[in-house]
Amino acid sequence: MKAMVQDVYGSPEVLRIEEMDRPVPGPGEVLLRVHAAGVDQGVWHLMAGLPYAVRAVSGLRRPRTRVRGLDVAGVVEAVGPDVTRFREGDEVYGNCTGSFAEYARAKEKALAPKPASLSFEQAATVPVSACTALGAVRDSGRVKAGQSVLVLGASGGVGSFAVQVAKAYGAHVTGVCSTAKADLVRSLGADEVLDYTQQDPVDGTRRYDVILDIAGNRPIARLRRALTPRGTLVIVGGEGGGKWIGGNQRQLGAMLLTPFVGHRLRAHGTLVRQRDLEALTELIEAGSVTPAVDRTYPLAELPDAIRRLRDGQVRGKIAVRL
What we know:
This protein is an alpha/beta fold. The protein folds into 2 domains: 2-126 and 291-321, Alpha-Beta Complex (Quinone Oxidoreductase, Chain A, domain 1); 129-268, Rossmann fold (3-Layer(aba) Sandwich). The protein contains 10 helices and 15 strands. The strands form 3 sheets. Strands 3, 4, 5, 6, 7, 14 and 15 form a 7-stranded mixed beta sheet that branches. A 6-stranded parallel beta sheet has the order 10-9-8-11-12-13, sandwiched between helices. It has a two-stranded antiparallel sheet with strand order 1-2. The longest helix has 14 residues, at 127-140. The chain is globular. The termini are close together.
């Protein structure tokens, strides 16, 4: 099979296509014929080995896993022992390691039936970003109908889903983005759109019940100024910060500070679970959530896709077609 591999950390130039043997599914795993894969910030961080803290998991000097890719949509080719939910021919989507290849292994518990209304390319952009957004809104943010929610980084992968999920939960949503991406955020259903190049969305003149900070470039103290007295701030993901621990410093700061202030400060990471994929499928089939796909690239052009993501040019999500 063809796969996009890397043997060293670095820029997109370290990626190359190589012929490899098909993986063999183990207990609780399925083999997928990959039709599409998603590209998100996690892919870039793992490729570059930045911040350096990720290397504690992915390999100190070189990547332990040669094939990149986390989001996947495809067809079940074979099942391993103890798999009960899926069989050959099922169309699924979810999370795995190594989706930038013609075939990939995935854990049964990290997959769900693909929404019938989505193409494989659309479905492949959902799992990591949308599960992150769902958890940030529902679990960490505890968003309720009638609340005001500010989404910083509303035009990105997680942000584009967070706007839609918060709206589905009945919130009044204000999305923050650049001038060039304001039309996208409006199309996602945001009640209001603030252009951060024209105004400071957290200057304290307006206050919100929940702030979802996905952009990662504002101090916690400044974000708290825009919260209601008992409001909630959710630091989503590890964006921003330096080369060593990146945005994880802000997440740690939020967790340490929250016992001493009136606001709820939460750090939210990424976890793709079957039940969350199924909850997202319900929202998708109901028309409440639609993936915003910026572009679709063939596998050979994956380096170009990652460059576009790295340079901040993406509106929503990028898919890779196999």
